[in-house]
Amino acid sequence: MRAAEKTDLTLRWMAFLLIAVLGLAYVKWYPYYQRTLFAASHHSIGGSILMGAAPRPPEPSVAAALDYAWAYGKAVWKALALGLLLGSAVQVLLPPQWIFKAMGATGFQSVAVAGLLSLPGMMCTCCAAPVVTGLRSRQASPGAAVAFWLGNTMLNPATLVFTGFVLGWNWTALRLVFSAVMVFGLGYLINYRMGHASPESLKLPATQDPRTADAGNALARWFRLLLQMAIRLIPEYLILVLLLGAARAWLFPQAGPDVNNELAWIVAFAAAGAVFVVPTAGEVPIVQALLLLGVGAGPAAALLLTLPPISAPSVAMLVPTFGWRVLLLVGIAIVALGIAAGLLAVMLGF
Q1: How confident is the model at residue 329 (pLDDT cuts 50, 70, 90)?
Q2: Per-residue pLDDT for 155 more than 50?
Q3: pTM
Q4: Closest CA to 124 of 291, 313, 300, 296
Q5: At what angle are helices 186-194 and 324-347 packed, to 10 degrees?
Q6: What are the E-state strand segments in 206-288?
Q7: What is the pLDDT of residue 97?
Q8: What are the C-alpha distances in Å from 164 to residues 102, 155, 241?
Q9: With contact defined as beta carbons under 8 Å apart, do 186 and 333 qualify?
Q10: CA distance linking residue 256 with residue 240, whole number of Å
Q11: Which residues touch 219 (CB under 8 Å, ≥6 apart)?
Q12: Nearest to 121, CA basis, from 176, 75, 72, 83
């Protein structure tokens, strides 16, 4: 590699790390440090975005849609902007061969690497989606990309701490065990279905050759790609958030003692959680509010496991990246794990 190429590569890495570190520090790390202190002293991180102080979500209406979209948008817009910046930066600034070697193999190693790399991100499922798209475009394996996607929400260190201070450390332990199975187990399952390979046996595709993939003005390509991602992802994202905000009362028709630990309620809440969309850690005050209203531990635990990792908007954003077959498998597996968590919570007397 010539000296000019080494310098260019170093500058790209420095630019990416600068954006990632400063962006995450501003959007995630410092705010979550403050929320951790608040959670430790108040055993709360705020009200439920699902229904506020009311005993149930509002009836479907335009006002309900707009109110939820406004509250949700205020909570995530910075993280979404950062997700788009990082998702496009991955495709322009990072060496394609590095991502391919680290996360391109269809075995467990790439899944483990991606899951661990997701820890600093702490993104919600929708805000992580652009980064996942960037990783897949750079030939990260499907299982590794899924592990990174799910790890942002389920292995989020701040959310695990919030869960402990607000709900109790038994809830954190339950969440952590099932999250590890979800992130690493589901990622490996997807890679297993795609076939086994090692980094040494895989060759970088010609279209990803660094000599051709990174040609041209990087800044112009970055801006163009950022604009393309925003135009493609944001409109459908907003529409689905509005629809879900209006449909809250249909997804969660009851929130009281009638929602007991029967299997039907556990299944219903697990499925509803996989469809609905919340900001990062939004599931914690929702579950807290439901428990205070008398909802059974089984449905609450199922919701705690299925609200964060996926949603209708995040799935729609990633259909071009994974295809429906992979996303359907992810959705079914997450709902099944949510049901299992709910049943275990009942058995353990949560």
Answers
A1: very high
A2: yes
A3: 0.91
A4: 313
A5: 150
A6: none
A7: 84
A8: 33, 14, 28
A9: yes
A10: 27
A11: none
A12: 83
- Which of 349, 327, 251, 321 lies closest to 87, judged by CA? 321
Q: Is residue 131 pLDDT above 50, yes or no?
A: yes
Q: Residue with structure tokens 């902007």? A: 81
Distance CA 108, CA 188 (A): 5
Here the tokens at position 209 are 């050759």
What are the φ and ψ backbone dihedral angles of 60, each rounded to 5 degrees?
Answer: -55, 130
Of 87, 105, 94, the residue nearest 320 (C-alpha): 87
* Tokens standing for residue 132: 């996942």
pLDDT in tens, 89-115: 998 888 888 898 889 988 899 999 999
Percent of residues, the chain, with pLDDT higher than 70: 93
Residues 6+ apart with CB under 8 A from 173: none
What's the whole-number average pLDDT of the chain? 90
Tokens encoding 37: 């202190």
